[in-house]
Amino acid sequence: MAKKVTDIELRGIINSEITNALGYMGGNLSSQRKKSLEYYMGEPLGTEIDGRSQVVSTDVADTIETILPNLLRVFTSSEKVVKCEPVKVEDVKLAEQVTNYINYIFNKDNDGFSVLYTWFKDALLEKNGIVKVYWDESESVEQETYQNLSDDEYRLLIEDDDVEVVQEESFEDETAKAQLEVVKAMAIKTGEIMPEMPIPMMHNCIIKRTNGSGKVKIENIPPEEFLIQRSAKTIEDANFVAHRVSKTRSELVEMGFDQKIIDDLPTSNEILLNDERLQRYSDIDQTPFNDSPDKSTEEIELFECYIRVDTDGDGIAELRKVTVAGAGGYTILENMACDNMPFCSITPIPMPHRFYGRSVSELVEDVQLVKSTVMRQLLDNMYLTNNNRVAIMDGMVNLDDLLTSRPGGVVRTKQPPSQVMMPMQNQTISQQAFPLLEYLDTVRESRTGVTRYNQGLDSDSLNKTATGVNALMSQSQMRMELIARVFAETGIKDLFKKIFELTCKYQDKERIVELNNEFVPVRPTEWRNRYNITISVGLGTGSSDQQVVIMNGILERQLQAFQLQGGQEYPMVSLKNIYNTLSKIVENAGLKNVDNYFVNPDMGKSMVQPPQPPAPTPIEKIEFTRIASEEKRKNAQLELELKELKSRNAGMLLDQEIRMKELELKYNAQIDTQQMRADADLNKILVSESIKDFRNTNDKSQMLQNQIESLNEQPGTGKTPKGISPIEQS
């Protein structure tokens, strides 16, 4: 039977996995990524000669910076990066809300564009891009200042459990006070009696708001901080994955770890002095580490490990999150069970059966090297051609005059110049160099799909016909669409699935957010146990410009069919069909909000509102308030009378029941028939009269009820006019 893994054994397993993981302690992977950074930054090649050309071509940077905007446009041209498609009919509305909310989390709660930009660039430059997505429970305290709040506004503000009032100041509303004085003066002049009305109060306050409900956090991980098992093909099938990061002692204590343990941990700047990280800062005066003498800011090496290990001895390895810190002998700070690994990876050129793919930089680095060499030789040749060397007869030419080359300069000779000086002819290489450079550009284009046409350049390419240009553009578009599809089906889809699962699992409070230009409540708890929603990343065919042309053609045909229908919605084209086409045109034009340009027919019908009455003047508001108070008093009096009538009716009914019981007893006692008949006739008369009285009373009660309702419904006689707040009414 398997035994439980002790902490000492677990520490040994973690230590072994870290040491053997890909990305730890340099190696070929780290060297390749450092080399890619050097080429992207245009660093010297290491073959430079003093006095000769040292120019470096920038093919790697040019290629990546051309591909990146095209990829970002695919995923950011619309506010919805992904769409949730329901599997069942009953999940259609749910899928729409999930679509809107997870895109809201990505774009609003997190900076979605920055996440994609860094993620894509890491992948294009350094093989794989890594993001970390997790539920962040950390609290943040923000101080907010509010001025001129009404009583209702102030009360709603302080009723929030997350709000603490730091400072508050109350004062009378001077505007309302002045208006009341005017009304009182008018009432005195007309002889009317005005009820006492309190002056509304205003409030200035400073509050502290604690934001600690938790949210989904998306974080870009530098490639050198990510470790993975060497034999892993994907993150999900890996037995070991880790995030290696440097934290200060203060940050570790804030994360909730024991301060005594943190104070005893050894310091380390190993991760900060990594070759890749140093290369990233090579062109600026910035150090990647903190050199403060304060002990609380000393750097500690931290590994957040996700490992499959049998800790309970049942023979089955479970996924656990184990956090260790300290260089060398790692100290376990946290050990807990978890559901999945919070990492998502993308690569532009996946390699089958292994985790790390190839970067676009790798495809262009040798081209940049050869182009740099050719460009240096060409420039050196042109320099020597423009500044020819001269053969002279020793002692017959003044060397100082010869070496000082300036316009109008004089060279002194002891013999005729033709006899003592002879220019050395240099052969130019431009005829061979320029075709070679053209060929190298062609090689780069065929490898990456980045042509001079989609770079916006007018080149002297051999193929400049319309057909040829379209062919090149189509081929280029296919290469970029392939990269976009790989990103979408691997990392993007995984990322949004994790966002969905984290939201369902941890967000247990209702949240009101603005979705589709309206505020709606979102309750992810209703999504639990309903994981039958597939996430799709929509990528169109052809470029955006091509899609606009196609959609314009479809729109033209739709309008023709709509005219043939005589402007009716059916049978071929509806307004909704036309709106969908217009939406696609706006989307492919790079504009996000379709509602700024066209109104959805479904929403437009519900948006038609009757004309609103004009807002009342301040004097009218106060007069309405006075009338409302008077009618409120009348309503209370009528309701009291109604209550008395209902009580009287109940008593009369009780009396009739008692009388009927007495009759029944007389009948059961078999009293004399004649007397019984007489009594019966008498009681029938009495019952009939009682019923009449009851009906009259009931009719009067109903009349009073109708009178109350009529008073509440008549404008100007109890109904609060538009524009009057509850405070003004009271």
SSE layout and pairing:
Blueprint: H1 7-20, H2 28-41, H3 59-76, E1 83-86, H4 92-109, H5 112-126, E2 129-136, E3 140-149, H6 151-158, E4 163-172, H7 174-190, E5 201-211, E6 215-221, E7 226-228, E8 240-248, H8 249-254, H9 259-263, H10 275-280, E9 299-309, E10 318-325, E11 331-337, E12 343-346, H11 360-386, E13 390-392, H12 399-403, H13 417-420, E14 421-423, H14 430-448, H15 466-506, E15 511-515, E16 518-522, E17 533-536, H16 544-564, H17 575-588, H18 601-607, H19 618-668, H20 673-713, H21 726-729
Antiparallel strand pairs: 1-17, 2-6, 2-12, 3-5, 4-5, 7-8, 8-9, 9-10, 10-11, 13-14, 15-16
Helix pairs in contact: 3-5, 3-11, 3-15, 4-15, 7-19, 11-14, 16-17, 19-20
Give short descriptive properties of this protein.
single chain; 730 residues; alpha+beta; five-stranded antiparallel sheet; three-stranded antiparallel sheet; 21 helices; disordered C terminus
Structural classification: alpha+beta
The averaged pLDDT comes out at 79
* Residue windows where pLDDT falls under 50 for at least 5 positions: 456-469, 714-730
Please give the radius of gyration in angstroms: 42 Å
Main β sheet profile = 5 strands, antiparallel
Report strand order across the widest sheet: 7-8-9-10-11
Count of helical stretches: 21
Strand residue percentage: 15-25%
Shape: elongated
How far the N terminus sits from the C terminus, by CA atoms, comes to 77 Å
Total beta strands: 17
Helix content: 40-55%
